Structure formats: structure tokens, C-alpha cells
Amino acid sequence: MNGILTPDSVLPSLHVTSKKQALHELAKRASVITGLGERAIFDTLVERERLGSTGVGRGVAIPHGKLASLDRVYGVFARLTRPIDFDAVDEHPVDLMFLLLAPEGAGADHLKALARVSRLLRDDGMLDRLRGCETADALFSLLNEQEASSHAA
């Protein structure tokens, strides 16, 4: 996830009890990273969830949205301390979340980033390793190392 994630955008143990609270906490961290208002980010995420849940199954959610004032694609990864109901397609609770925010005009870049994250989080071995990591540094390294090795293959 080079270029999308920074060490500051990885939350190793997010304490939340609801989908709304999870989106709010991700928006709060994204606000710090992007410099955009927390409320604008949160509203964008909620609006996207109204179209259908971004809970893609296997305990994973990939909330995403576009904001006009962004200059590039940004990501925030969170491992929740306890799974939450997220209206996921498989009806299982979510404990891993990868937020993606893209500029309004970033059609292809946004879709490529979404595809990269989706591919990464479809791998059961990767999901097990992410759930086993204790620190933000370990999660950050794992997310970046996995992508580097898949590019080399």
C-alpha cells in the first residue's frame, strides 16, 4: 500500500462498538492525515454506506469515498479490538477496516486502489497475519511488504 498508507494511518487496536462510531473514528484519523475536515469525510463515508454496505465479507470492510479537495488517494487501516456489526454481505461482523479516500476526479486511481486493497484483503493468510499483529509498525510493514512481494511476482 505504498503511497496510500503511512505509519500514522494505521490503527492497531481501535475500540468502537458500532458502524457509525467506526466510521467516525476513521474520519477523525483521515482528517489529521489529509488536513480535511472530519465532518466532510464522515459525511462522505455515510453517504457511500447508504448505497450499500462496504462490508465485503470475512470480517473486512473497505469504506471509501471521493472528496474534491484531495490531491491523491489516502488510506487508513484499522484493526478493531472487537468485531462490530457492519451489515456486511456475508452478515459476519467486521474487525478489519481499510478506509480509502480519493480526489473527486481520480476515476482510475480510485478504482485501482480499491482493487489493490480488495485483492490484498481477500487472502485468508493475509487476514490471519493482520489479525495477529500487535503494533501499528507491524501492521504497516505487513501491508507494504505483502504488496511489494505481489508486485515482484
Would you give an account of this structure?
The structure is a single chain. With 153 residues, the chain is α/β, with parallel strands linked by helices. The chain has one domain (7-152): Mannitol-specific EII, Chain A (3-Layer(aba) Sandwich). It has five helices and six strands. It has helices at 19-34, 38-51, 107-120, 124-132, 136-152; strands spanning 10-14, 55-57, 60-61, 64-67, 74-84, 94-103. Strands 1, 2, 3, 4, 5 and 6 form a six-stranded mixed β-sheet that branches. β2 (55-57) and β3 (60-61) form a beta hairpin. α1 crosses α2. The longest helix is centred in the C-terminal third of the chain and has 17 residues, at 136-152. 36% of the residues are buried. The model has no long low-confidence stretch (mean pLDDT 91).
What is the SS-derived class? alpha/beta
Q: Which residues form runs of ≥5 with pLDDT under 50? A: none
Q: What is the CATH topology classification name?
A: Mannitol-specific EII, Chain A
CATH class: Alpha Beta
Portion in beta strands: 15-25%
CATH superfamily: Mannitol-specific EII, Chain A
Number of structural units classed as domains:
1
Shape: globular
Number of strands: 6
Q: Level of helix content?
A: 40-55%
Question: If classified by CATH, what would the architecture be?
Answer: 3-Layer(aba) Sandwich
Straight-line distance between termini = 16 Å
Radius of gyration based on Cα positions: 14 Å
Tell me about the biggest sheet?
Answer: 6 strands, mixed
Q: Give the integer mean of the pLDDT values.
A: 91
Please trace the helix and strand order, writing H or E for each element. Answer: EHHEEEEEHHH
Helix count equals: 5
